[in-house]
Each structure stands twice: as structure tokens, then as C-alpha cells.
């Protein structure tokens, strides 16, 4: 799986990486170096972010299912 950023998003993140290096290390890095760092960290972190998204979606769906199940149970007719 590969992270797909739009051109604008990638430019924003690359600029952020360059700013980080300048602020933290007082070092200017090229756009290419920032892009390579972004690609490296994205490839290492992407599975964790993806799995967290799956976990969050699972929790959301299970919570909704519980509510749905309660709503359906409330619709049951009681015998007279």
C-alpha cells in the first residue's frame, strides 16, 4: 500500500519537513532530501496509521451496530 498525496499536499509536507530541519537543526535541506525523508518515514509509518484507521472504523461500526441492535429490539411487539 502506498500513501497517495496530491501534489499540493506533498508540497505542503515537504515544506514542513524543510522548516523542521531549519528550526530544529539550523540546517537547510533541499526539496529532494525532504521528499526522500518523507517517503522513508511514510513507508515506515503508513502500516501503523492504516491499521489505526481500520481499528477506528471497526470500533465505529461496532458501536453503530450495537445502537442499531438496541433500536431493533425496541421495535419488537410484546404479546398481549
Note the gap between the termini. Answer: 57 Å
Q: What order do the helices and strands follow?
A: HH
**Domain tally:** 1
The major pleated sheet works out as: none
Radius of gyration (Å) = 23 Å
Question: Can you describe this structure?
Answer:
Pfam families: DUF2164 (PF09932). This is DUF2164 domain-containing protein. InterPro entries: DUF2164. With 80 residues, the protein is mainly alpha-helical. The chain has one domain (7-74). Helix content is 79%, strand content 0%. The protein contains 2 helices and no strands. Helix 1 crosses helix 2. The termini are far apart. The model has no long low-confidence stretch (mean pLDDT 93).
Keywords:
single chain; mainly alpha; 79% helix; DUF2164; DUF2164 domain-containing protein
Ordered list of secondary-structure elements with their pairings:
Layout: H1 7-25, H2 31-74
Summarize the structure.
The protein is mainly alpha-helical and 80 residues long. Helices cover 79% and strands 0% of the residues.
Amino acid at each position: 500500500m502506498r500513501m497517495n498525496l496530491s501534489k499540493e499536499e506533498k508540497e505542503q509536507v515537504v515544506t514542513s519537513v524543510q522548516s523542521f530541519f531549519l528550526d530544529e537543526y539550523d540546517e537547510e535541506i533541499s526539496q529532494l532530501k525532504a521528499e526522500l525523508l518523507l517517503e522513508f518515514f511514510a513507508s515506515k509509518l503508513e502500516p501503523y496509521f492504516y491499521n489505526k484507521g481500520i481499528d477506528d472504523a471497526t470500533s465505529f461500526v461496532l458501536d453503530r451496530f450495537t445502537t442499531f441492535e438496541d433500536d431493533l429490539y425496541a421495535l419488537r411487539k410484546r404479546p398481549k
